Amino acid sequence: MKLIPWKFNNDIVEGYTVPAHIDGKLFNMSYNGIDDKQVLENRKELAKMLGTDLDHMVAPLQRHTTHYLSVNKKDGGKGIYSQKDAYLGFDALYTRDTDLTLFTFHADCCPVLLYCENQHLVAAIHSGWKGTVTEIVGKVTRHLIEDEGCNPSTIYAYVGPSIEARNFEAMDDIIDCVKKMSFDTSSFYTKKDETHYLLNSKGLIKQQLLNCGVLEEHIEVSPYCTMENDDLFFSYRKTHTKNRNISIIRLKK
């Protein structure tokens, strides 16, 4: 198993995207009722690679919400061995505890990882188009700043592999929601034809971070498109797969 690291990895924090296809083998990381035994084995292999175990990992059951949850080591194993005890309807998790790996699932939706240096805190966020237009990334970031004491100038962010604007066709139903966001979004979509637009969801997410005071040089935007790089990633739009990629983050010490 190989991992794609964000550029801010150091002795304190590490974040990765786990590719779906590695040397001809599939690494689905999400329970889907089809190959759940293999998913568990894949998660065990990931834990071994990270030098940890499944009881030091947490995975939510995402529902395209703007709900977020603080977790700690007592939550280790939740949503990892099965979905039965996963925290339902939370699309973002954050923690101050070390050696607790946070999962976020995606297959064209955007994973966002945060590390706050001054509060020694990490977060993993799932932002599909619904989460993007309802500004989950901005809401989580503001919560960390206003309620958890995070200094925005010490926040580092990763906007991970997801569908790129050149492939993200959207119609008026989505664009109408984009237009209702809390900032000027007109530069983040372009008209393709009479009924379709191209939507820059990564750009919308980055702007939410900038609006919260996160420094541009502290934001990494992945160049990968999940639709185009299907040799690496699962893409729902391309294949309607039930499999999911994951991105993860943890404090090492």
TrEMBL record:
It comes from Catenibacterium faecis. Keywords: Hydrolase, Metal-binding, Transferase, Zinc. This is Purine nucleoside phosphorylase. It holds the Pfam family Cu-oxidase_4. It catalyses: inosine + phosphate = alpha-D-ribose 1-phosphate + hypoxanthine; adenosine + phosphate = alpha-D-ribose 1-phosphate + adenine; S-methyl-5'-thioadenosine + phosphate = 5-(methylsulfanyl)-alpha-D-ribose 1-phosphate + adenine; adenosine + H2O + H(+) = inosine + NH4(+). PANTHER family: PURINE NUCLEOSIDE PHOSPHORYLASE LACC1, UNCHARACTERIZED PROTEIN YFIH. NCBIfam families: peptidoglycan editing factor PgeF. The keyword Zinc applies. Belongs to the purine nucleoside phosphorylase YfiH/LACC1 family. Purine nucleoside enzyme that catalyzes the phosphorolysis of adenosine and inosine nucleosides, yielding D-ribose 1-phosphate and the respective free bases, adenine and hypoxanthine. Also catalyzes the phosphorolysis of S-methyl-5'-thioadenosine into adenine and S-methyl-5-thio-alpha-D-ribose 1-phosphate. Also has adenosine deaminase activity. SUPFAM superfamilies: CNF1/YfiH-like putative cysteine hydrolases (SSF64438). InterPro entries: Cu_polyphenol_OxRdtase (IPR003730), Cu_polyphenol_OxRdtase_sf (IPR038371), Cytotoxic_necrot_fac-like_cat (IPR011324).
